[in-house]
From TrEMBL:
It comes from the Bacteria. It comes from Streptomyces katsurahamanus. This is NAD(P)/FAD-dependent oxidoreductase. Residues 19-367 form the FAD dependent oxidoreductase domain. Residues 415-469 form the BFD-like [2Fe-2S]-binding domain. Pfam families: DAO, Fer2_BFD. InterPro entries: BFD-like_2Fe2S-bd_dom, BFD-like_2Fe2S-bd_dom_sf, FAD-dep_OxRdtase, FAD/NAD-bd_sf, G3P_Oxidase/Oxidoreductase.
Length: 483
């Protein structure tokens, strides 16, 4: 009896070999996958967690930097400036929330005041010439709620706040629409290379094979580097804790209030957010544990003390949430991007908090470096437009405010999360998107649901019910590929 084609025993299909595997689904990795998938190569984005943007990228200060205070002449300074241009344009095309607030650096002592002219000179050396030194009375005109003792300031009119969650999701979604495979729950445990030039990543989700590997693993970049036989750097997790104040605090802060930076970092800032809140932080604490994203009593005490001196009135407002993120600090003064031609391996390490702004420029640089190393990268003739992302900012029109949209689909008029005005339609869309929300935290980052005053206490059961109705049951959690 004959068998129909495609049924019964036969040779197993040859395993897929990608031209490039990108390790790390944060902003930098997603940007690299997007950039490369715009060319005639097959790309896989490999992420250890169950969602893109669930590591370092989800918990930062969400500032779109001009790069005014980067060290002139470094790769970082060049890529931050270029990234500011690229991400500003991409945000407009993809609907990523951005607010052009501007910033002011505030000097509180003579040493900080003396440092301001040098910071202006550094900005000019970086090609940014719009900084201006201002006296204390002008600082108070810009931010009347600041505490006593301001000695002067430096304005940076083009600093902005952005939605880091939407940025990461847009880049990963764009990569997927361009044909990249997005492999979630794939923690890399071992690396092996074959004589045919193909590298196999052994992961918790199964083997992934590719001709080139790009390591953009953030906190895990040194460990991946070691799997390729290198000992170039060590990542030190640097915890930054932050307070998020209620929207009623927003009138106190219309622009970003920056400290004068030190060798330890940019210090504690006060900043508006695109969601209508005010943020205070971050702290800066080196740790050994790469999973220690919990907040601490000492961190809270530090922020309360610092906030009380910077802006006493802010501490009269309600704290909506606190959170902590880990930054990948390394003992290297610049971004560490290097290709090993023999191994067909490229390291993207030491990407600090500026990686949010520089991500798309880093992706350009990676593409150029790979091309110089011998990878054929011909630009594709036709590409889909950038995805238009759901708008979760506060300054634009949200679905619950859009009468025409509600008339077409009443689900956008059914508010589920009252603190953040999130509708049933938005939750449904987040659960059925190309890269869907699979967890409550993933839903928070896509919609703001449960991010408000009650932190899900009131709306949690209704949100959970909608997720169970619309959740991506049909797609394995570990693999999302283009269709």
């Amino acid at each position: 009896m004959s068998k129909s084609p495609g049924h019964g025993p036969g040779p197993a299909p040859a395993p897929v070999v990608h031209d490039v595997i990108v390790i790390g689904g944060g902003i930098v990795g997603a940007a690299i996958a997007r950039e490369l998938s715009g060319h005639t190569v097959s790309v896989a984005l490999v992420e250890a967690r169950s969602d893109v943007g669930d590591g370092t990228s989800k918990a930062n200060t969400a500032i779109l930097h001009t790069g005014f205070d980067a060290t002139p002449g470094t790769l970082e300074s060049r890529l931050v400036a270029r990234g500011y241009e690229l991400l500003s344009r991409y945000a407009r095309d993809a609907g990523i929330p951005v607010e052009r607030t501007g910033a002011v650096l505030v000097a509180w002592n003579d040493d900080e005041l003396d440092a301001l002219p040098g910071l202006r000179k550094k900005a000019e050396d970086n090609g940014y010439d719009r900084c201006r030194l201002i006296p204390p009375e002008e600082v108070y005109e810009l931010v009347p709620a600041l505490g006593e003792g301001v000695l002067g300031g430096l304005t940076v009119p083009d600093e902005s706040v952005i939605c880091t969650w939407t940025t990461n999701l847009a880049l990963a979604t764009d990569a997927r629409q361009r044909g990249a495979a997005v492999l979630l729950d794939h923690t890399v445990t071992e690396v092996s290379a074959a004589d045919d030039g193909v590298t196999t990543l052994h992961t918790t989700g199964g083997p992934v094979r590719g001709r080139w590997v790009v390591n953009a693993a953030g906190l895990g970049a040194d460990r991946i580097d070691a799997l390729f036989g290198h000992e170039r750097f060590t990542v030190t997790p640097r915890r930054g804790e932050l307070f998020v104040f209620d929207k009623l605090a927003r009138p106190l802060v219309d622009l970003i209030v920056l400290p004068v930076p030190t060798s330890r970092g940019k210090g504690v800032l006060i900043s508006p957010t695109v969601y209508g809140n005010v943020m205070l932080g971050p702290t800066s604490e080196n740790l050994a544990d790469r999973t220690a994203t919990g907040t601490s009593e000492d961190g809270f005490a530090f922020l309360l003390d610092k906030g009380g001196r910077l802006m006493p009135a802010l501490l009269d407002e309600e704290v909506t949430a606190s959170y902590a993120g880990l930054r990948a600090a390394i003992d290297h003064p610049d971004y560490l991007i290097a290709a090993d031609r023999a191994q067909r391996y490229l390291l993207v390490g030491g990407i600090r908090s500026t990686g949010l702004t520089a991500g798309m420029a880093i992706a350009e640089y990676v593409r150029q470096t790979l091309a110089e190393a011998g990878l054929d990268l011909d630009e594709r003739a036709e590409l889909p437009p950038p995805p238009r992302m759901p708008y979760i900012g506060e300054s634009g029109v949200r679905p619950y405010q859009d009468a025409a949209r509600i008339a077409r689909d009443p689900a956008y008029g059914e508010i589920v999360c009252f603190c953040e005005r999130v509708t049933a339609g938005e939750i449904r869309d987040a659960c059925t998107a190309p890269l869907p929300a699979r967890t409550p935290d993933g839903l928070r980052r896509r919609t703001r649901a449960m991010n408000g005053r009650c932190q899900g206490f009131f709306c949690g059961p209704a949100v959970e019910q909608l997720m169970s109705e619309h959740g991506p049951h049909q797609t394995p959690c570990h693999e999302v590929t283009s269709r």
